[in-house]
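Worked Example 4.2. Consider the chain below.
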Amino acid sequence: MKLEEYERHFMKMMRHAADDTNTEEKKQFWFHRGLHHGIRQMVAGCEFTMLCHMVDRCIAIEKERLGWEDRQCNKKRRADQQIRDCSFQEPRGATPPPSRNNYRPSSNPPNRGFGGGNHQYNHNMGPSPATSRATSPTTA
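Applying the procedure from the previous section yields the following structure tokens:
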């Protein structure tokens, strides 16, 4: 709800709570409680002689806030448009690169699992017994 709408609504409701809004201080208190929290923080330290001065200040703050949000949205929209304008795709007639599944160098066979394979060296225990018997000199 825009601040002008809130002001009109507040003035209508103020008629039904005459005891709560019979002084300028009370009017400002209740108007302040119903504000958007960002505007409420901006106006919190200010003192106004009349409610209409407080409303004018709140409207000015809201216009500035909405203008800033609009500028941020426009920046994002322009950045998104530039990304869409820069084509990262190749033209349709271009030949596609070879698929990853079909490309394997012939000199390196694929691994058959983690730690698998037919190697003779056990990393934790040193050479396997079959290898050590074949390479060690026999004494008889």
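The beta strands are 121-122, 126-127. Helices lie at 3-14, 24-33, 37-43, 51-85, 129-135. Compare this with Example 4.1 before moving on.
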